Amino acid sequence: MEAKKKRILIVEDEKNIADIIEYNIRKQGYDTDVANDGEKGLAYALSEKYDLVLLDVMLPKMDGFEICRRIRERLDTPIIMLTAREEERDKVMGLELGADDYMTKPFSNAELLSRIRANIRRYSGENSVSKAVSAPEKDEIIDLDDLVINCSLLTVKKNGEEISLSKQQYDLLEFLARNRGKKFNQEALLEQVWGYNDFYGDVRTVDVTVARLRKQIEDNPSEPKHIKNKRGVGYYME
Fold first, then answer.
1. Residue 111 to residue 93: CA distance in whole angstroms
2. Are 230 and 177 in contact (CB under 8 A)?
3. Which of 25, 27, 180, 185 is most enclosed, with most CB atoms within 10 A?
4. pLDDT, tens digit, for every residue of 28-45?
5. Which residues have C-beta within 8 Å of that of residue 141, sequence separation ≥ 6?
6. How many alpha carbons fall within 13 Å on the CB side of residue 105?
């Protein structure tokens, strides 16, 4: 039986750029849809099943930041934001709103395809830090005092209450929890958690994801108990 093709939504108002992206993605065997304004892009994203969304920031009718925010209210679909801006605050804003990564134009076809493959693999669990087990006899638990990770159910509870994490946040937390005592710099985490094994990816993605995760799991994110950082060495859990 032939495997179902992965579907990618391209939200880009510049037709020549959208056409090039669509052509290169389809050559790799993906199915694609294209939306040329923000309102249409949001409608597509919320009404159809996509394995990944490529989302431009500057769009007519609704910008990419608002689209990203609304998608994240309902879906965990991987989002890669595309921007011509170099300003750091725009990159951080996209990640804080729930984007999985961003790419600054112009970018190479090889880099784009690498990021697409890695994010789809991670979202589908193909390179997840914990592999699914058929009918486990007992849930695999990582107990961190006030924080409890159920690696079989992919859930996290803080003081007995389940908290909502994105797939990216969960994978990062579980990876660090499984490797307590070991320190990982941003490049290592991009490789081990994000699946970027060919040097594509911005280390700022890791820093913002850690900051978002700390807001969810730490009593005081500015003085973290769980996810710590040794300057010049990397992130770790004791």
1. 22
2. no
3. 25
4. 999 999 999 999 999 999
5. 148, 149, 150, 151
6. 16
Which residues, at least 6 apart from 39, have a Cβ–Cβ distance to it below 8 Å? 61, 62
pLDDT for 3 equals 65
Please report the pLDDT score of residue 40 as a whole number. Answer: 97
Helices marked H in 28-105 = 38-47, 64-74, 88-96
- Are 38 and 57 within 8 A, CB to CB? no
pLDDT in tens, 88-124: 777 788 888 889 888 888 888 988 998 999 889 887 7
Q: Name 67's Cβ contacts closer than 8 Å, sequence gap at least 6.
A: 11, 38, 41, 42, 45, 55, 59
Say how far apart CA 136 and CA 180 lie, in whole Å.
24
Strand, helix or coil at 37?
A: coil
Task: Supply φ then ψ for residue 161, to 5 degrees.
Answer: -105, 130
pTM over 0.90: no
DSSP designation for 4: P
The amino acid present at 29, given as its one-letter code, is G
